[in-house]
Amino acid sequence: MTSIHAFWLAGRQTTGETTLDVTSPWDGRLVGKAAVPTDAQVEEAVAAAHAVRDEFAATPAHVRAAALAHVSRRLVERTEEIAQLISAENGKPIKWARGEVGRAVSVFRFASEEARRFNGGESQRLDTDAGGQGRLALTRRFPKGVVLGIAPFNFPLNLCAHKIAPAIAVGTPIILKPAPATPLSGLLIGELLAETELPAGSWSVLPVANDKMPALVQDERLPVVSFTGSEQVGYAIMDSVPRKHCTLELGGNGAAVVLGDFSSEADLDWVAARVATFSNYQGGQSCISVQRVIADASVYDRLLPKIVTAVEGQVTGDPSDPKTDVGPLVSEDAAKRVESWVDEAVGAGAQLLTGGKRDGATYAPTVLTDVPAGTTLACEEVFGPVMTVTKVDGEQAAFDAVNDSKYGLQAGVFTHDLQAAFRAHRALEVGGVVIGDAPSYRADQMPYGGVKQSGVGREGVRFAMDDYTYERVMVLTGIDL
After folding, report:
1. Which long-range contacts (CB under 8 A, 24 or more apart) does 133-137 make?
2. CA distance linking residue 245 with residue 227, whole number of Å
């Protein structure tokens, strides 16, 4: 009999009246059942978080740091078990699932380190004008209030970590809502947090149904909303609570620019290998996966066949097999959507060079050229293993092509020219520019987020900690400086 994964209400394990079936996108098998909280239990969690906020904010840094370090260590100890869980519920190939566990280990470790040094206070002398003589300002940061963290399915462990670890680090309670398709990894974080001595009520992990979320989003006791997911849902949340603080990590259609100086055979082999890997590495279900390759005309004809060959070399299959590069999408409906977008582009005149086939929830790694500008594939985030390749004349045309998008998350620029790298950093309307590699690189301690329709705010442990807090100034009078 399949066990029921209990949820975590104000730090204690419990069950509700109903359960949610979690099935494998690969073969449809039942991975587990997640208990679903009742409305009364959700209210209890919110009330507990609201009640404990002052106590938690006053918790000594070493207590919070120790709890975070404990979770990091336990993730290391249970790496293989957790990776198998991620792969089963998400369909992610096991080698990428292991990498995700490693990243979550780092997130909790970074948060533990930051908790010990965050908010030491910054002093500012005020006697720079006569009226400030004898006065000193001390600025510290304090939590804005309870965080509602809403995590997506594509990184079911690490993106839950990015919500909860910074909150604990600053001492603000958090209600974490994992994605309904992949709740088990988030619930496991709760299991590890329950082994710590954090105050009751300071955290809850609730697999709440999506249709129950509007009431939670609008609850005044949850003044901070941190959401990672689709553009449509993210901006609907922000529009519904215009006076709340919202951090939105939304979509992208990552561009990889190949400039003319990146032209040796070794250079182009590197480009082909990197874009093939990172167009497909999570089934394309990453906001910074490679969706667009924009190549200078001087290298395009030599690069294109290399890309096709590299993409065709990606191994598609059972995500539990260590040799598998590309597993299924999160559901058959997701794969059907990708299929419809590719079919629309081909029908409008795009050239399909490889892929373009669906088998259940699996969509074959796909490369297209000559995609018409008005097609859905050209305008939206595909969130699947699909790459388009475009020829441009010169650096400025390449940068213009990157910016010709409503999204602006990250871009990669393959160049050896240091000046071109700085010009790209200045010109590209994105939150991050990766030089010499695909746009898919993310270090979990760096500021991560986008511009335009890719969202507002930044993740990355220290930057999320800033986002969850505000500055409060204390002026000391009668100070002899």
Report:
1. 134/477, 134/478, 134/479, 134/480, 134/481, 135/475, 135/476, 135/477, 135/479, 136/475, 136/476, 136/479, 136/481, 137/473, 137/474, 137/475, 137/476
2. 11
List 89, 113, 231, 249, catalytic entry: 249
Entry pTM: 0.96
Is 81 part of the annotated catalytic residue set? no
> Active-site residue 249, yes or no?
yes
Per-residue pLDDT of the chain (481 residues; tens, 9 = 90+): 457 899 999 999 999 999 999 999 999 999 999 999 999 999 999 999 999 999 999 999 999 999 999 999 999 999 999 999 999 999 999 999 999 999 999 999 999 999 999 987 899 999 999 999 999 999 999 999 999 999 999 999 999 999 999 999 999 999 999 999 999 999 999 999 999 999 999 999 999 999 999 999 999 999 999 999 999 999 999 999 999 999 999 999 999 999 999 999 999 999 999 999 999 999 999 999 999 999 999 999 999 999 999 999 999 999 999 999 999 999 999 999 999 999 999 999 999 999 999 999 999 999 999 999 999 999 999 999 999 999 999 999 999 999 999 999 999 999 999 999 999 999 999 999 999 999 999 999 999 999 999 999 999 999 999 999 999 999 999 988 8
DSSP SS3 for 104: helix
Round to whole Å and give the CA distance between 93 and 110. 26
* Identity of the amino acid at 138: L
Catalytic residue among 114, 160, 287, 339: 287
